[in-house]
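Below is one such protein, fold included:
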Amino acid sequence: MKKLVILSLGVLLCYSCKQEKKEDIAQPIKIEQYSIEQFMDNENARANGFSHDKSTVLMTSNRSGIYNMYTVPAAGGELTPITKSDSSSVYGISYFPKDDRILFRMDGNGDEIFKIFVKDSSGIKRLTPEKNVRALFRGWAKDGKSFFYGSNERNPKFMDHYEMNIADFTSKMIYENKDGMQFGGMSDDRKYIALTKPSTMNDNDLYLLNTETNEKVKINENICGNSSRDFSTDSKFFYYTTDENSEFDYLMRYNLENGTKEKVIEKNWDITGFYFTQNGKYQVMFTNEDAKTVMNVTDIATGNKVDFPAIEGQQIISASFSRDESIALLRVGGSNTPTNSYAYDLTSKEYHKLTNVLNKDINPDHLVDSEVVRFKSFDGLEIPAIYYKPKQASVDNKVPALVWVHGGPGGQSRQGFSSIIQYLVNHGYAILAVNNRGSSGYGKTFFKMDDQNHGDKDLKDCVAGKDWLAQQEIIDKNKIGIIGGSYGGYMTMAALTYTPEEFKVGVNIFGVTNWLRTLKSIPPWWESFKEALYTEMGDPNTADSVRLRQISPLFHTEKVTKPLIVLQGAKDPRVLKVESDEIVEGVRKNGIPVEYVLFEDEGHGFVKKENQIEAYGRVLKFLDKYLKGKDSEVINDGKTKSTEIEKES
């Protein structure tokens, strides 16, 4: 059901909160308030590539309630389902380069143990081992006769590099990964493989392996962050990004013949992606500019920038090109509109919209745009954040607020669309997505500031965010909570445990609560960067265990005094179900409101629409009751009431 609330025209203007005055407020207009079902009916769809004749596009969409594969004409039209799974999600990879067969992947309800499958006219066939083997697609061979993939079939800890022939689907190992390396790409002539060896969560060594001589050459000389990007299509150069002697990642070129290096491009933000199209006609570069993705495409022959059309006034987030480089698939969206896919002809300049993902029941004018803000933390450090203001908020209609903490450690809240954030904002909650110290995107010094300091200064940044919110004239300073998933869930529990009077409620979405257990139980395929994670967080097998216990909320649950809701997927391989089980059990002993929402058929993130509706609908009800509304419900024995719901698969 849609609920009507009042919106003042004055708050639509681009004034800061301190500039808002009563005389600025015009006559109110009506804005609709939408249900969780309506917001979750925003389709999440992504184009996976063109067919070999470029007539159709492979899509992955959750329109059926879980992810399945579809096709759509490249000129636009209706999506046609080609899989109809009603249990595990199906994720498209691509069409085959020269025929209509399709590669796709599936895991076991979020366990992240992916298998690769092929769909052809005769049906579906699994191409990689069935049990306890993880396989990830790594690209097509230049001639289109085989594809590459990583698999831990030989050793659960290490992803070896394989090639599979698509004529008979036989495979062979190309690189045996005995040293815990991470794969970074392969040259078209197959002579070189790029490998990285993490030393910290930011720093890693970069190597080039000569497959003919088996010689391995280290590219970087000093400790720094390095990432493999691409080989030139003539296999003469290797491109990578590094932050050596710099705060931000810049682009380097390495001559494979003589080993010389040169800087190619440097910006005042991280270069986060770089690649060449199939035949080297274009180079594509992405930068992370103040939490927004900026794409630049260059015609290599002319050196000119390729201009793309301004589509509906939105931002082009990414592009992927057909094998003949004549057309591209564009992802277009913004913080106030979900991302759609377009097919764009680079010669005719015509484009066709392939998806229309916003639920037709939702008026796009009722969604809010994000705003980048900055505030000073306890020690004077400037903290960036993404701010969402409800359109119904005003000086005379103050609203509650939430500090939103991203995942990680080392993640970043971005300027992109989130149905969950828009849902909460639409229902009158301001959101401040804090990029606390330790977040990526703001330089390596900022990124390293929380190393072995989690639950302390990063938490103080979140408290400073709460204080900033409390100073805004449209915010009810007495009604500010904290919410986050994974590392953000940890920060939620750390806030309720170590600063119990700062936030009125907490929403913990599969958050770490016992670092000792989590660091010891990471999935085996994380072996290549386990030591890097230990360097940042601490090694649970050493004296670091004392500090890790101190910063683990599970061992201090008696300090929690504010209402809490916990959401968890039972198949989560990263944050185990027992983490949430035990934190709920511990906090309930304090006699405060605790709600627990458990999904037996989800992993680290909820992908089934039915479960998303249940999860985030419960979050809003919890917030309406304990943050926006009345105090905790008290039952006859004088203790506060706690509830639990379990969603069966």
Observations:
- The first strand starts at residue 3 and ends at 8.
- Residues 1-29, 631-649 have pLDDT under 50 and may be disordered.
- The CA atoms of residues 543 and 549 lie 11 Å apart.
- The radius of gyration is 25 Å.
